[in-house]
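User: For a reading group we're discussing how well predicted structures match intuition. Take NKX61 protein. Before you show the prediction, I'll give you the sequence so everyone sees exactly what went in.
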Amino acid sequence: ILLDKDGKRKHTRPTFSGQQIFALEKTFEQTKYLAGPERARLAYSLGMTESQVKVWFQNRRTKWRKKHAAEMATAKKKQDSETERLKGASENEEEDDDYNKPLDPNSDDEKITQLLKKHKPGGGGLLLH
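Assistant: Thanks. Here is the predicted 3D structure of NKX61 protein, as structure tokens, for the group to look at:
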């Protein structure tokens, strides 16, 4: 028994065995909440107190929620960036309408030069005379 500076009993954190943690995790996969009788049965079979099982499940649910929230945020960011990418692609398609149309033989050199500059880095390197 550990005592604090005032001589009172100091609370120690329980250390669970690998087998206990494995059984707790397996149970948690099946159900996130345990009713009283289930908790008592599990605690007895693992050599733990009901209070230890209860607190372990509370802590495990908190960890699960945080992980789930982080995964949802990541999925939302991915979805938002894909939406932006698709939106940008459709805007570019609209801008490219002139570029994708057959060239009018009566187009002036300025219009052709602008199209080339718009779609080729450095203006395409072509000079029209």
